[in-house]
Write a structure and sequence with these properties.
Helix content: 25-40%
Structural class: alpha/beta
Number of domains: 2
Bound molecules: nicotinamide-adenine-dinucleotide
Shape: globular
Largest sheet: 10 strands, mixed
CATH superfamily of the largest domain: Dihydrodipicolinate Reductase, domain 2
Number of helices: 15
């Protein structure tokens, strides 16, 4: 069974003090009503696919005023501004340069749903401007940026929540509680899988960007590369310069839960991986087939080493183990299968069926947790340090896949040991730009 230290660590990872653990069981509407008089003014940066989902939720809240929308694509910007007007009857400032949002002292917080290569630059600038930040996952484009984001949040004493909404999902929280209380004994291995059917992005040639897009601002501090239609929108995530492949896209949600259920709150020391483009014959640069194993040392009173395994097959038109994407936790007394969109089941010793629970994730609950943290100053459930540790697994898995050999990593210094090529992939090259993070 779990020790008091395990329990404390679980509560810390869950972002739950005892008081807020109790509060979680209040209904979402009760929590919302409690804060209804304190309106928080926000700007939404990058109202594209996911950004519009955030905006749609935010304009429906009585405790939030959306005062700014910001997008480098004039068509998307106009659609976002229209949505705010239609849903609230209020006007909104529509700007293309995120500095115009950050300049406004009335803005308390920003939602950042840009492509990944903008997450760290925008978050660091926002913290420095005194804004709290909800930033989409993966929090960083590379491992070094994640550390800089943690430092910026702490230096400026800002709340930074990462958009892994399963952290605020009731059945997931109950699953983690059950694991930490020892329902399957000591959890030695956790597996996360990303198996779904993606499409090809084809092969295309550079051409002029569309007139409604400020492509130079879209690139931001990333090195200039010519525009081509299969770079965006959305598909930028399949390019090295802008995303982290599907391990950092959908995989990061399940890797986050694998890490949480495994009970590790540091980095692994050894990473090994295999993968590549086995199926898609297109411009995509990241693997469609990928297997990564991360090994953690026996530390913090836990007597065994632990493994986190990630599997990716993004050409699979079927569910695996009953869940499109999911997690399996293997313990000394049983196992648990968890789907963040569906629920979980436990199998006990001698294959006896154990407890189970159904549920699906809730974006409003994750927003609520962020807004509660902004009001109270407490750490959110997907605090940036948690987001950084999880995104680091995506980055380290990608590095091991790209160099095609075992990577040894120093968890304390966040440095690769004895491999210059792998070490070079911990950070990126930037161009000279106003958003280039210092010390990157
Ligand atoms: N939490 C989730 O479940 C979930 C789901 C989908 C996507 N996401 C994340 O949301 C983010 C966006 O993904 P998407 O699929 O919506 O991408 P997208 O390309 O559809 O949207 C990104 C938007 O950001 C805009 N943009 C780019 N640079 C900008 C800048 N400097 N300032 C303002 N706007 C800028 C683009 O024009 C576009 O409208 C990604 O990080 C992705 O991983 C999260």
């Amino acid at each position: 069974m779990s020790s008091p230290r395990d329990r404390r660590r679980f509560l810390r990872e869950a972002g739950l003090g005892l008081a807020s653990a109790t509060a979680f069981h209040l209904s979402a509407s009760a929590l919302r009503a409690a804060g209804a008089n304190e309106q928080i003014q926000v700007g939404v940066i990058g109202p594209g696919g996911m950004g519009m989902s955030h905006l749609g939720e935010l304009v429906g809240r009585e405790d939030v005023v959306v005062s700014h929308v910001c997008d480098v694509d004039a068509q998307r910007l106009a659609a976002a501004a229209q949505l705010v007007r239609d849903r609230t009857g209020r006007d909104v400032q529509a700007v293309s340069d995120l500095r115009r949002v950050l300049d406004d002292p009335q803005v308390d917080a920003v939602w950042i749903a840009t492509p990944d290569h903008w997450h760290a630059p925008a978050t660091i600038l926002a913290c420095a401007a005194g804004k709290h930040v909800y930033v989409e996952k993966p929090c960083s484009h590379n491992l070094r940026e994640g550390r800089l984001m943690v430092e910026a949040a702490r230096r400026h004493k800002r709340i930074v929540q990462v958009g892994t909404q399963s952290r605020s999902t009731a059945h997931v929280i109950e699953a983690m509680r059950a694991l930490q209380e020892g329902i399957i004994g000591d959890v030695l291995v956790a597996k996360a899988w990303n198996s779904q059917r993606r499409g090809s992005i084809g092969r295309q040639q550079p051409c002029a960007p569309p007139a409604h897009l400020d492509y130079d601002l879209w690139l931001g501090p990333a090195p200039v590369q010519p525009y081509q239609p299969n770079l965006l929108p959305g598909v930028w995530r399949w390019w090295h310069a802008f995303g982290a492949g599907d391990i950092g896209n959908d995989g990061v949600h399940d890797i986050d839960l694998a890490r949480w259920g495994l009970g590790v709150d540091g980095h692994p020391h050894t990473i090994t991986a295999l993968g590549g483009k086995y199926v898609f014959d297109d411009d995509q640069q990241w693997p469609d087939t990928q297997y990564v194993v991360f090994e953690y040392p026996a530390t913090n009173g836990f007597p065994h080493p632990r493994q986190l395994i990630f599997e990716q097959r993004i050409w699979s038109p079927y569910f695996q183990e009953g869940h499109e994407n999911g997690n399996a936790f293997y313990g000394t007394k049983g196992m648990m299968i968890l789907g963040k969109k569906s629920g979980w089941q436990v199998v006990l010793e001698r294959n006896q069926p154990g407890p189970s629970m159904e549920g699906t994730f809730s974006l409003p609950d994750h927003h609520q947790n962020f807004l509660d943290s902004v009001r109270s100053g407490s750490r959110p459930r997907a605090d940036i340090e948690i987001g950084h540790l999880t995104a680091s697994l995506c980055h380290l898995g990608n590095i091991a896949t790209r160099v095609n050999r075992v990577v040894h990593f120093d968890p304390a210094t966040e440095q690769v040991i004895g491999d210059d090529e792998a070490a070079g992939l911990l950070r990126r090259t930037y161009r000279d730009h106003w958003a280039t993070p210092r010390d990157a």
